[in-house]
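Slide 14.
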Amino acid sequence: MTVFWLSLRSFRTQILAYGIGLGAWAAAVCFIFTTLQDTLSSIDYPQAILDAFGAGSTGLGDPRGYFSTEFFSLAPLVVGAFVVIASTGCLAGEESRGTMEMLASLPLSRLHLFVWKPLSVLVATILVLALSSAGWALALPFVEVGRDVTVWMLIGATMAQLPFLALILAVGVLLGALAPTRATAGAWTAGFLVVAYLLAAIGAISDSVSALKYASPYYYADLTGILIDGIKPWHQVLLDSITVGVVLVGGVAFSGREFGAERWQFGALLGRRDVRQVALPVPEAARVLSVEARGGDGGRMLAMLGLGLLLLAGGGGAVYGYRYLATAPRVLVVDGRVDAPSAVAYAPANGVISILTASEGDDVQQGAPVGWVESSTDDATYPIVAPISGRVTRVEVRVGQLALAGTPLLLISDLGSLRVSLDIDEADLRDISVGQPVDVTVTALGAGLSTRIASISGVPREPAPTRASQTAKYEARCTLPNPDPRLRVGMRLKGRITIPRR
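Slide 15: predicted structure.
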């Protein structure tokens, strides 16, 4: 474990730099999208470009397509660069610095080094992804990107890069055990990363070369369209199986490697044992040690398999963590108000309001007169009748005022049947249905209560929006069987509706 902690500690600067940088990138993507959404929706991008970057089925005007293009299609290359440097440096780098001979002279088996040092790179990669996920958590609550993308989905998609990165780590360790130097191993591993990306991108552009993408592990990582199409479990099983196989081959190669030879050592794949004289480049230890390359440990293959299973578990955890977060129910938070069934008393004829027997705050009975109108056409007097039983909550006229037939005069509300009215965005109507439970918090009282949606209006509350960026609001009403006596009509509230993901 000492080797593990020392190695992980050596990555602390890179972890912070890559993690904070990626987190800032994620936050910037959120804020830029809200500024450019209308423009992106109106631009007709070539379909090949959209397909190459994972936004082919939605376009850049959709937040899923935009985030896929601007972050998830490219972020694996950035994190992959860190993995390339760290994976080829954890073992081959020790040899290039002349410190591997010292480690090998200690009572540590090669197996010990092979397991713990790459594992420190894997943990460092997880920390980089976790730090970059903080960018979504810090930015998304302050911007409006639509209801199809949540913080948890973005965090899950970020962590789902781990299986692909674990494969890059395994390739880096394998090449570090075979290549003459760390620089050579790094160059070949970086080439593998770039070629994997290009094959997948080019294969998505045209049907004539679409077969190329099947040769790329990047294609099986499902990263470019992860927010739109999700991930395919069998792709991840294939990717993780290849990773385990590469780890096992890398362990065999490292166990048979001749340190300091500076040549390709494909013969190390045979796991042979080499004994040679190694001059330690340390002034205070200017002596020659006989160092035995510890290949052929009885438990070597078992432990390498264990490392492979750790990589597999990490990759599988990232994938199924994403699946859990992406399919977890989302909570829709909407504004609303305390309301009550109301009806308007209208002027029965043209004339002058001669008498008002009810004022604001009075209780009236359905059918009872609440005032009188002296007609200006036939000298008759007509009663103003209460349409429902309830309390007069608004008076629109005064005695002596002229009113035309059909003019609203009084508003009467049934305060004994309080209800909740919620403003539902048109984009969310597909997820709302009658009978759906709602948790309500009344802002003024800080009180919470539970209810269910009783009805959904068929027309918007206000005139239809005139701009593409505006959306219509529809009213969903909920009953309150046992209302709190402190509730008053017009109080503002927040409604929380849990919506299962399909």
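Speaker note: The chain has three domains: 2-328, 335-339+416-499, 343-415.
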